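Reviewer 2 asked us to include a model.

Predict the structure of this chain.
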Amino acid sequence: MVDQNTNPSVHSKTNDLRNRIIFTILALCVYRLGTYIPLPGIDLKSLQALMETKQAGLLGMFNIFSGGAVKRMALFALGIMPYISSSIIIQLLTGVSEYFKNLKNQGEIGRKKITQYTRYGTVLLATIQGYGVSVGLESSASVVIDPGFFFKLTTVISLVAGTMLLMWLGEQITQRGIGNGISLIIFSGIVAEIPRALATTFELGRTGALSASTILFIFLLLIGTVAFIVFIERAVRKILINYPKRQMGSKVYGGESSHLPLKLNTAGVIPAIFASALLLLPVTFSNFGMSESELFNSISSLFSQGQPLYMLLYASGIIFFCFFYTSIVFNPHETAENLRKHGGYVPGIRPGERTAYFIESILTRLTTIGALYLTLVCLMPEFLISKYPIPFYLGGTSVLIVVVVAMDTVSQIQTRMMSQQYESLIKKTKFGK
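Predicted model (structure tokens):
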């Protein structure tokens, strides 16, 4: 009998998991370092004084997704949002354009082509937003040391390079690390700023801006929100699948039952990120010299937190992307066809189209509940933030992203560890015989 500890394949699998975790941590450290490298030609003291007066509204949300890089006007100030916005546009095109539909159906070749278009779109959006940032900085008194064409050029190049580096880091984490790279980058930015947000909250309590009972209520609400998120994300609707018995010679195969699991929230945290990305687009235009316009300022005020228009657009975006993203990641007709090919059927439902409609009806109801759940989690704490001076990092969207991404990452680590244990157990049983 051969000891599993002497099996080189088991050790290689263990080393692979450890290397993936180390690579992920190092990549996230590079990201955090980039959020502290300021853009060239900026007076940091003047910038800090300016940002202290402009942390509300969409700029504060923008600061969340950049991991605090916006208030420091760092290399990664645009964050990963141009890439997410480009992904939204490309995915919308796959639903309405025949060209992109055909690319999607071409398998690996089409996927690479879509990825290439997404990168082109990222460069374009990052360039536009980078130029908007440079104009906005120059319009602010004493922030830019030497305004002019050279400052605009260096700012745009720096911000575009930072966004492309983040995009590359995200793709490398997905391929060579653990979890979804883009989600982990947003996750790490939020987590890194949470201690500062907690310190700010306690400082507000010390100065009397918030009462002790209010702070206690906020933290109890956060704990309840986390528990609610975990409960819903673990919720699964199981559809019973039966397989008929088949006799081949003297042996009988099949006859067993299994389940088709459908998550209550199939789309995960993507709808909240996509909806936030769309709401962040006005920030770009606010920097094109229109910040002094009274008409534009009055329109921008409608997008601040707690305003009905902001809540309505945010909720609508979440609900839309819940259904849209679910339709992309799960195809009931394809699932029903695969079940029919393998002889599986839902009891009482005819295989084929009837099964597809049955699965689709259940998925629609689940997605409706999931969309309402995401809307409630994302908007409920926003009302508190609009009434009390609580940092954005304690909002519903931030908590949702942190909890869901953490659960997904831990789940992937557990899956890899379980596969190693199963493999070593099989080898041990094989050699034991």
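The longest strand covers residues 236-242. The chain has one domain: 4-432. We have added this to the supplementary material.
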